[in-house]
Amino acid sequence: MSGKEIKVAMIGCGGNARGHMSRLLKVEGVRIVGLADTADGPIAEACKLDASIAACPVYSDYKELLANVECDAIEISTPHTCHFDHIMACLDAGKHVLCEKPMVCQVDHAHQVVEKVKQTGLVFGVSYQRHTMAPYRYCRDLIASGEAGNVYFISALQSQNWYRNRMARQDWRSKIALSGGGQLNDSGSHLIDVILWMTDLQPAEVMAYQDNLEAEVDILTAMSVKFDGGAMCNMSIVGHAVNFFEEITMWGEKLTLAIRGNDVWRWANETKEVVTGDALGADSDPDTNFIKSIRGEETPQATAEDALKVIQLSEATWRSAAENAPAPVIR
Questions:
Q1: What distances in angstroms separate CA 214 from CA 101, 174, 211, 220, 238, one per listed residue?
Q2: What's the rounded Cα separation, in Å, for the pair 161 and 75?
Q3: Which tens digits make up the pLDDT trace of 178-203?
Q4: 169 contact partners, CB below 8 Å, separation of at least 6
Q5: pLDDT class for 3, splitting at 50, 70, 90?
Q6: How many CA atoms within 13 Å lie on the side-chain side of 14?
Q7: How far apart are CA 71 and CA 90, in angstroms?
Q8: Helix-, strand-, coil-residue percentages of the chain, each rounded to 5
Q9: Global pTM?
């Protein structure tokens, strides 16, 4: 399909989706051909991005878009609990799919998506953008090559001004019926995903504590994970902070690797080496990777199988916090 124009339709036109549209507009040979959203406001904002988008047919029902718009691919950026129905309908319609994270909110649904992707042979990706970012790819490559040795301990922290923003707006992310969970299922999903992806470790058990701060959904999460083979991880997901901050440190038998912003700190002994810029490799983004995968030039960098591992650990975390006891990660 190299050289062929790729026609993409959008299900969901909110702020996140408009970020995807802005990136797609920069990819040569791609045209956005249809929009669907249940609200008029997001569609109106999307139409401001470019005249070509303003000329697209618009629908309040995604099923009408699928029935009426000729396209090769769909990008889904809707409330989390809607993803499963949207994914399955798009794959049934023969469309390549890029879905926002989390892919789905139930392990059973994740297994169904994995099987549907295999059955259809269509390109499917999840918008975990860290898979296309140089510091994370650099660490993943070191671990996969064996240069770091076996990873035996991980410490990770993420903070965000999530609670104030969600509660002030009372938006869909604060509603369990639409979000499927709080900070753990939103930005925290990125942290869980990238740790599992970089290390290729399989979680076996988790002990977690959570505080909803009187919201419907989790805001604060403290979790300790034990992996197959004995590796361990402490993860803190702080949804009530004045700033965004994230750091990950991984201890291997031969190297210690720490991601700090756009840099990687690495130790082979007591001397710290800072790896930065071109030495880390090039950045990309999920939309570019999606289009190149449709054209056969790349493969999806965040897959349904990756997303399955995320929801497996997330479900176990919620279960552990609710029961105040360690919970096995059900696969």
A1: 25, 11, 8, 11, 15
A2: 27
A3: 999 999 999 999 999 999 999 999 99
A4: none
A5: low
A6: 12
A7: 11
A8: 40, 25, 35
A9: 0.96
Interacting residues of 278 by C-beta distance below 8 A, sequence separation 6+ = none
Q: Are the C-beta atoms of 221 and 236 separated by less than 8 Å?
A: yes
Which three-class secondary structure state does DSSP give residue 263?
A: strand
Q: First and final CA of the chain: distance in angstroms?
A: 36
Q: How far apart are CA 147 and CA 252, in angstroms?
A: 9
CA atoms lying within 13 Å on the CB side of residue 131: 24
Give the pLDDT confidence of 95-145 residue by residue, as tens digits.
Answer: 999 999 999 999 999 999 999 999 999 999 999 999 999 999 999 999 999
**Whole-angstrom Cα distance, residue 145 to residue 260?**
22
DSSP string, 12-46: --SHHHHHHHHHHTTSTTEEEEEEE-SSHHHHHHH
Predicted local distance difference test score (pLDDT) of residue 166 = 87
Q: What tokens were used for 42?
A: 């997001």
Total count of residues recorded for the chain:
331
